[in-house]
Amino acid sequence: MVSVRTCTISFETLKAAPFSLVKDDSVTVKIISQNVYGDSILSVAGVGAVIQLVPDAPINFANDPLTTTDLVIRFTWTEGASNGGTAVIDYDVYYDQGSATATYVVLAEAVTTTYY
After folding, report:
1. What residues have CB less than 8 Å from 70, skipping those under 6 apart?
2. Given a cut of 80, is residue 104 above it in pLDDT?
3. Confidence class of residue 101 from pLDDT cuts 50, 70 and 90?
4. 3-class SS at 32?
5. How is the chain split into domains, by residue range?
6. Residue 25 and residue 4: Cα distance in Å, rounded?
7. Which listed residue, of 10, 55, 107, 114, carries a Cα 20 to 30 Å from 49's Cα?
8. Residue 31 and residue 60: Cα distance in Å, rounded?
9. Among 55, 56, 41, 49, which Cα is nearest to 19's?
10. Distance separating alpha carbons of residues 114 and 116, to the nearest angstrom
């Protein structure tokens, strides 16, 4: 029985020949099932992914209660689901100064950790 129904292909492979995919190209796939008796016919084509070079936005924002005091607030986050094919090198942190129009300004740039 198949327990994992995913396939991971490195972006380096997809952007090299013979595929030569670039940003926003769709990856179209067909799949064959196999069992002890043989192979199925090819499935209908399905679009499994879109090539993206930029990472997904960070997720899971949380206050760090072990570090937060009446003088310091620390928050944490985790990397988004996709890093766009290359490691995330840093984060820029923005905050809203409490304006009615939610205007975000830079708090810190080039943060290399998943907390600030």
Report:
1. none
2. yes
3. confident
4. coil
5. 11-50, 59-111
6. 25
7. 114
8. 34
9. 49
10. 7
Mean pLDDT of 82-108: 86
As a whole number, the mean pLDDT across the chain is 86
What number of residues does the chain have? 116
Residue with tokens 């009446």: 70
**Using CA atoms, how far apart are residues 93 and 98, in angstroms rounded to an integer?**
16
Residue 2 pLDDT > 80: no
Looking at residues 52-69, what average pLDDT do you find? 89
Nearby residues of 102 by Cβ (< 8 Å), 6 or more positions away: 96
**Are the C-beta atoms of 78 and 58 separated by less than 8 Å?**
yes
For residue 67, give both structure tokens.
């570090």
- Tokens 């570090």 correspond to 67
pLDDT over 80 at 72, yes or no: yes
Q: What is the mean pLDDT of residues 77-99?
A: 87
